[in-house]
Design goal:
The complex is a heterodimer of chains A (about 290) and B (about 400). Chain A has about 290 residues and is mostly helical. Chain A contains eleven helices and two strands; from the N terminus they run ααααββααααααα. In chain A, helix 1 packs across helix 9, helix 1 packs antiparallel against helix 10 and helix 5 crosses helix 6. The longest helix of chain A has about 30 residues. The termini of chain A are far apart. Chain B has about 400 residues and is mostly helical. Helix content of chain B is about 65%, strand content about 0%. Chain B contains 17 helices and two strands. Classes of the chains: A mainly alpha (about 290), B mainly alpha (about 400). Chains A and B meet through helix 4, helix 9 and helix 11 of A and helix 6, helix 13 and helix 15 of B.
Chain lengths: ~290, ~400
């Protein structure tokens, strides 16, 4: 069963990668109540800033740092400059974040062109596992993703700022009563989500390619992931990411390449209809 | 509010008498009149642009009818245009049904799609409903891609075979061949949708829609079933959207994913409605025309002719050194963004509000509920006013 191992390797790695994207998405929704459709745009920003810095400095580590920092700065600017002013109108938020995503894609298209760019891998070479050769880069991406996820769990559950984020996600009024500045918490989650999405963009680009529209498919998958796991639940996102990437890989390998992403979307619709709060979430409470 | 609704003193003649109307309504009538005579003075190429703009405005109105009124934001209205168009196109291509008959059948198919999707998905609310509507057209596109022999996949029906244009009727030339006939067909579809939507939204049913947007639980408490009204709006919107999609396809002679189904279309429809003014229908019509023509204008902005000299200058962005035409979509996105951010209540409500503020400066009134945003007040007062005048609440 050679192909089973390669499917398993892909599922393990893509699951970790999608977790990074979905966690950021779900953090922003769970804490601030904002569905950030520009999240895919942040992925693009991360990949292209890594590409540009790597091309200028020759170091992919510098590129990785750039991916995190530029994306975090982009998310910060997006939140402070735009979303914080219109946060209370969900429709405007949805539309404006979508327009921002489109502008980002078009800007990348104009500056870097429409062709697919190859971003240098973080680690060259392959290793053989059970007779199947796997790129070292993929293993590194897997490990790094899990280090980030673990770090995030530690941060949210153990540190003061992390607990403030959790508290705000449960009740922003309650958090305000005990002296938590919710505006500060929102900003924090946007920066975190931006950095995670930027790194995910670099990872994606390092084993596929970077293209202006590269953020779209991961964004659609992360809809399915966060809805399946429960909007706002970090643990649910990780589990959802694995379920969805498993389903997606199975569909691609055994049914048809043309159905990439569709099974995830069908799951999304079914979950929304049958159990809208997902596996681990709370239902959206209208205030 | 509703007790004396039937015993109003205004007759239809009063309501439809242009002299009695307020200024913005007279301007609206003049605008419709202008749409009738425009082709006389315009070159054929502009008639084609305008025809597409009219179809697009019809799409926008069909969105506004559901989302602008009931407040359930559909992010995938392209589904209706796509189902209507493709059903009609495939009936024509694979079964050989005449386009004049296939187009209404396509509209019915889109209405059925509205029923199938609306019935389960309208139970969930807010962002969840938006997510479902966002992904259903994407799923449909993938299904189309999976059956390329029938649907032509990404390229559209053209790649499978030629879809017929509308045939000529008697002395009237075929709308698919003659640009002016195509224009008047589009105008017919546009006015049909406008009249239908305005009539429904200014009736009692329209008041229920608006009430659902304001407070669904209160509507339920009065004994009306909000789900039923929302489903009705969804299905009617699907019928009209699908009809417009089918008519558009048979006018231009092809159906493809990027013009009817793609996410971008669904988003453009929403943006245009917001630009024009949500929850007004007329605002959606104006917004749709404005948005489409703005895009055409920016796309054709490559060269500017200097007045009097006739010299043509190529417009180039200074720092990046690229022609405007190449990055028109980026520019377009930025212009749209600015509009959305600085004019959130939309063009029509803003203009009408300004007029009103100027003509009757004493109309400033105390806000009892602690204040809504200025935009919301303008939209509200405008829809209230129109509803009264169009007979929704004849007093």
């Amino acid at each position: 069963m050679v192909s089973a191992i390669s499917v398993a390797a892909d599922v393990l790695m893509l699951g970790a990668l999608y977790s990074l994207i979905a966690i950021g998405f779900t953090l922003i929704f769970g804490v601030g109540g904002v569905l950030n459709l520009a999240h895919g745009g942040i992925i693009t920003v991360g990949a292209y800033s890594a590409y540009a810095v790597e091309a200028a400095s020759g170091s992919i580590v510098a590129g990785a740092i750039a991916a995190a920092v530029v994306s975090a700065a982009f998310a910060l600017a997006l939140y402070r400059g735009l979303i914080s002013k219109i946060r209370h109108n969900p429709v405007t938020v949805l539309i404006l974040t979508l327009v921002v995503a489109i502008i980002t894609e078009q800007a990348a298209l104009v500056v870097f062109g429409g062709q697919e760019l190859v971003v240098r891998q973080l680690l060259e070479g392959t290793v053989t596992v059970f007779g199947e050769s796997i790129q070292r880069n993929r293993i590194l991406v897997f490990v790094l993703s899990w280090v980030l996820i673990g770090g995030l769990f530690y941060f949210v559950n153990r540190t003061r700022t992390g607990k403030a984020i959790l508290a705000t996600s449960m009740s922003d009024k309650g958090a305000a009563l005990v002296g938590i500045d919710s505006e500060y918490v929102y900003t924090y989650t946007w920066v975190l989500a931006g950095a995670l999405a930027g790194l995910a963009g670099l990872f994606l680009a390092s084993f596929q390619t970077a293209s202006p529209l590269m953020g779209r498919n991961p964004l659609l998958l992360s809809f399915a992931i966060v809805v399946l796991g429960g909007l706002g639940s970090i643990r649910g996102s990780v589990i959802g990411a694995y379920l969805i990437s498993f389903l997606d890989q199975i569909t691609i390998r055994f049914i048809s390449e043309r159905l990439a992403g569709v099974s995830a979307l069908i799951v999304l619709v079914l979950v929304l209809l049958i159990r809208p709060k997902g596996l681990f979430g709370r239902e959206l409470v209208e205030e | 509010m509703s007790g004396q609704a039937r015993s109003g003193s205004k007759s239809w003649a009063d309501i439809l008498n242009p002299v009695e109307m307020q200024r913005h309504q007279q301007v609206g009538l003049l605008g419709i009149l202008a749409l009738f005579v425009l082709p006389v003075v315009l070159p054929a190429i502009y008639a084609i642009y305008l025809a597409s703009a009219l179809f697009f405005a019809t799409f926008v109105m069909s969105w506004d009818f559901v989302s602008g009124y009931t407040g359930e934001i559909s992010f995938g209205h392209g589904l209706f245009f796509g189902v209507g168009g493709y059903a009609s196109g495939m009936l024509n291509l694979h079964v050989g049904i005449d386009p004049w008959i296939a187009a209404p059948l396509g509209a019915v198919a889109a209405g059925v799609a509205g029923l199938l999707i609306g019935f389960p998905s309208l139970r969930v609310k807010g962002p969840y409903f938006s997510l479902i509507t966002l992904v259903t057209p994407i799923i449909l596109i993938s299904v189309f891609r999976f059956f390329p022999d029938w649907t032509g996949g990404e390229l559209g029906l053209v790649s499978v075979g030629a879809v017929e244009n509308f045939g000529a009727i008697g002395p009237i030339p075929s709308p698919g061949v003659d640009p002016y006939a195509g224009y008047y067909l589009a105008l017919f579809v546009f006015l049909f949708a406008l009249a239908l939507f305005v009539a429904i939204t200014r009736s009692d049913a329209g008041m229920v829609f608006t009430a659902i947007r304001a407070d669904e639980i209160s509507v339920a408490a009065t004994g009306k079933n909000p789900a039923k009204f929302k489903l009705f709006a969804f299905v009617v919107s699907g019928l009209v959207g699908g009809f417009a999609g089918a008519m558009y396809g048979h006018s231009v002679g092809g159906f493809n994913v990027s013009e009817l189904l793609a996410l971008l279309i669904s988003i453009e429809v929403i943006i245009a409605a917001i630009l024009g003014g949500i929850g007004t229908i007329t605002g959606a019509a104006v917004g749709g025309l404005f948005f489409y023509l703005l895009r055409v204008f920016i796309r054709n902005l490559d060269t500017v002719t200097v007045p009097f000299t006739g010299a043509e200058i190529e417009l180039v962005i200074p720092l990046l050194d690229v022609a405007v035409g190449e990055i028109y979509f980026l520019l377009f996105g930025i212009v749209t963004f600015a509009f959305l951010f600085y004019l959130p209540e939309g063009i029509v409500p803003r203009v009408v509000g300004e007029w009103r503020a100027r003509s009757e400066p004493q109309s400033g009134e105390a806000v009892a509920d602690g204040g809504t945003s200025r935009g919301e007040r303008v939209v509200e007062s405008w829809t209230d006013d129109l509803r009264e005048l169009f007979g929704g609440d004849r007093r």
